[in-house]
Amino acid sequence: MNYPSNPNPSSTDFTEFFKFDDFDDTFEKIMEEIGREDHSSSPTLSWSSSEKLVAAEITSPLQTSLATSPMSFEIGDKDEIKKRKRHKEDPIIHVFKTKSSIDEKVALDDGYKWRKYGKKPITGSPFPRHYHKCSSPDCNVKKKIERDTNNPDYILTTYEGRHNHPSPSVVYCDSDDFDLNSLNNWSFQTANTYSFSHSAPY
DNA sequence: CGGTTTTGACCCGCGC
DNA sequence: GCGCGGGTCAAAACCG
Fold first, then answer.
1. Is it the case that residue A175 has pLDDT exceeding 90?
2. Where are the transmembrane segments?
């Protein structure tokens, strides 16, 4: 499969910054790294046009599978994460940005099975937001899909929560005795953008 | 027939 | 409190 290249490539590698459980430090470092002083009012990681902290622009929807996999790490809106922790919710939130020239249906197909359960108009945006829930039993991962108001060429996909099961269509490992719980290290590279890695007791 | 989408109604947290 | 906006429910429609 051939995906278009990122129109705004960056060679920045945040690998060393991403450690579980020290999100605040991580966030500060990223902001320093991309030279963004005023991050408190507009927490955008890599694209200033959005009010959301975007984990990465992706060119392959399958990349989001790993990010919401059972061993994913936290990145997302700082206040939102704190709020979710207060409410004892899984704090994981990812926002991915996809060029809409990629077929929207392809962007939706991230390897997991989803059930759409809502659609709402958003104030200040001419585009509605779509609500989806993972169809796997007892899995509470949700995702929201909306067009970036400031940049309608892009679609923002927000993931919340960690899947309690591997992706039905993505192979993580071809080992026979593969065990999710014993997989403590993983990494993935987004095409032409950032690479993430994770090592945590999961 | 089983699962998904559609859609308006409902719910609820938050700011005033 | 109360109202607004965002999030969810659920019944009916839809679809392979």
1. no
2. none
